Amino acid sequence: MDLLLGIELRNHSLGVREICCRESLNNAFVPASENVKRLAQLDISSHSVRQIVEQEGAAVSRAQHKGQAGPDFTVEECTDQTVIAGADGVMVPMVTEQQKRKRRNTQAAKRKKEKRKSTAKAQRPRKGSDGPYKEFKIVSFYDKDKTHQYAVGTSADHKVAGRFMRQTGQRLNLSKALCKYSVSDGASWILRQYNAQLPMLDENILDLYHLREHVTRAGQVLFGEGHKQAVVWKENMMKIVKNQGSLVMLDRLGQCMENRTDPDQQKELENLRKYIGKRIDMTDYPYFLDQGYDIGSGPTESFCGCLTKRLKGSGMRWDKDNAESVMALASVYYSNQWDAYWKSKQKAA
Question: Please, are residues 336 and 315 in contact by the beta-carbon 8 Å criterion?
């Protein structure tokens, strides 16, 4: 029966692979295996489920990196032919080299006690991460009402994220969009890649809520954390920048500095002025709102959570390539391509 269903380790049927991958999007491999057994009446070990998921995800990841996979829509299909780009970094827990060595020593001691040999292939053990966390980078594109959306992630550096930006922009025909802009937290690597890879963007907007975090911190330094006046000051500054623009806000911050003698308070105000001063073009909120632009990066933040939710469960640690494989499957699912992906596999078979 197992042979007919295609659930031998090296011969999993397409349906079995989809079930295992779908269950593993939100569940660890042990409960995913249990769910597959209960719902599909297929007895597949958690180890096999893990292998299926990582192999399938690795294939998707390779296709993404080669530019063979991407959005299944173009700007012509987007609402008002408007495309919004986003990018962000998110920390993912890694298995460190020290943890791997400890695990191998524990397993070796257990085998010795039970007087059995290792069944693993004779090969150099995979090295662990040099730190407990690694920043993964997420790149997203979506239209105004979010009916079309695409997100992809990488464990590699900003240059690879930039390549994803360029490849996706080309598949979207981004240069032909009537309106195209980005909303991000203004990180330097994001801006460099947008300028290099997507120079056709009309605007690069600083996420208003990210700016709010900086203004909130300044208010707490000026008046004390939790103080009512800190909240009043923050709201007043945010009202100014939203309705009158960042140049007026810079002027108000300058006036605040003149009335402050405490060096820590002056330093905080100066840091906020520098932060805004480097992003004047990104903080012209009155103009952006007048044009009907989004000024918040909520969709990209949501993508970051969705693509890494499975990776950041309690107690989870990952090898970099396996984490990217799982994230690649999440990319397919949350980009609304899941059904189309598996149908394409059926046609190919």
Answer: no
pLDDT band, very low/low/confident/very high, at 314 (cuts 50, 70, 90):
confident
Nearest C-alpha neighbor of 294 from the set 75, 91, 79 = 79
Predicted model pTM: 0.89
Helix (H) or strand (E) holding 12: strand 11-12
- Tracing tokens 């900086």 back to the chain, one arrives at 214
Angle value at C-alpha 149, between 146 and 154, nearest 5 degrees: 140
Q: Which two tokens stand for residue 229?
A: 């006046």
Alpha carbon separation from 30 to 23, 26, 63, 307 (Å, rounded)? 10, 12, 28, 20
Are 324 and 155 a contacting pair, CB within 8 Å?
yes
Place of tokens 């640690």: 317
**33 and 46 Cβ atoms separated by less than 8 Å:** yes
- Return d(Cα 209, Cα 207) in angstroms, integer: 6
The beta strand positions in 44-194, using DSSP E, are 82-93, 133-142, 149-154, 179-184
Of 346, 319, 345, nearest in space to 60 by CA: 345
Q: What is the residue-averaged pLDDT of the chain?
A: 91
Strand partners, 206: 184
Pairing relation of β-strands 82-93 and 179-184?
parallel
Report the largest interatomic distance among the alpha carbons of the chain, rounded to a whole angstrom: 81
Q: Which residues of 141-157 are buried (b: 16+ CB within 10 A; e: fewer)?
A: bbbbeeebbbbbbbbee
| Token duo for residue 52 | 């299926």
Q: What is the DSSP string of 198-242?
A: -TT-SEEEE-HHHHHHHHHHHHHHHH-TT-HHHHHHHHHHHHHHH
The amino acid sitting at 213 is: E
CB neighbour class for 214 (10 Å; exposed up to 12, middle 13-18, buried from 19): middle
